[in-house]
Specification:
The chain is α/β, with parallel strands linked by helices and 217 residues long. The chain has one domain: Vaccinia Virus protein VP39 (Rossmann fold, 3-Layer(aba) Sandwich). The protein has ten helices and seven strands. Strands 3-2-1-4-5-7-6 form a seven-stranded mixed beta sheet, with helices on both faces. Helix 8 links the parallel strand 4 and strand 5. It binds S-adenosylmethionine. The site of S-adenosylmethionine has 25 residues, from helix 2 and strand 2.
Length: 217
């Protein structure tokens, strides 16, 4: 008997939501993209602000989901280039439709790929973010090493994550989310050569979102 039948309707729904958050697909995936842009607006905006992007830079958003981060990076680089890397064909499709002029002008370059094998050359990017994604990545050491590889020396990378204790209380995270202690991620970043320069919080209290602002050696 399939596991979903044994789970009951509520758990089946939550497991489906968790799967869609980790890899949005099809029509429900488009709805998830819209939801992500609304629900994560403050966090994604804070991540781009923490990145302190300069005009003309080459920036990267890994796991851009609904595409809000791409939009903000396009504005901030203002004539530079933005790369977006996504696992999800549905999110890539959404971004192509949302930013046709920037794609045609080569200002936005969209890549199907994964954080652990970025389809970009060494030292090709000066500023990068990934927000709400590492919960879906089994090997963060490999992912951070890959991010360090594509960053130019002195390049900045901002990692945005929900507070693990607060996220553990959300009913969908038990369905496959990897909720790692912030210290573990800080250690993995430093090991990969991404020095944590700042640890910002977005929001109030213990549930506030974490932004780890790093710089490549
Ligand atoms: C919860 S959404 C977050 C989207 C957006 N960054 C935000 O904060 O609203 C996670 C996104 O990461 C993508 N993703 C998951 N694992 C990935 C990986 N290993 N490499 C690249 N993208 C990944 C998913 O396809 C999904 O669009």
């Amino acid at each position: 008997m399939p596991q979903t039948v044994l789970m009951g309707p509520r758990k089946t729904l939550l497991a489906g939501l968790a799967r869609q958050l980790g890899h949005p697909r099809g029509l429900p995936g488009h709805a998830v993209g819209r939801l992500l842009n609304r629900a994560n607006r403050g966090r994604v905006t804070a991540a781009v602000e923490a990145l302190a992007v300069r005009r003309g830079e080459t920036a990267l958003d890994i796991g851009f989901g609904g595409g809000l981060g791409l939009d903000l990076l396009l504005r901030a680089t203002n004539g530079g280039t933005v790369h977006g890397v996504e696992l999800s064909a549905t999110m890539l499709d959404r971004a192509r439709r949302a930013f046709p002029a920037n794609v045609a002008a080569g200002r936005l370059v969209l890549h199907e790929g994964t954080m652990t094998a970025l389809p970009l050359p060494d030292a090709s990017v000066t500023a990068a973010i990934t927000v709400n994604t590492v919960y879906f990545v089994p090997d963060v050491a490999a992912a951070f090493t890959e991010i360090a590889r594509v960053l130019a020396p002195g390049g900045r990378f901002v990692l945005g994550i929900g507070d693990p204790a607060a996220m553990a209380k959300a009913p969908f995270t038990e369905h496959g989310f990897r909720l790692r202690p912030v210290e573990e991620l800080e250690h993995a970043l430093a090991t990969a050569g991404l020095e944590v320069r700042r640890h910002d919080r977005v929001g109030e209290g213990l549930a506030a979102f974490h932004l780890l602002v790093t710089e490549a050696a």
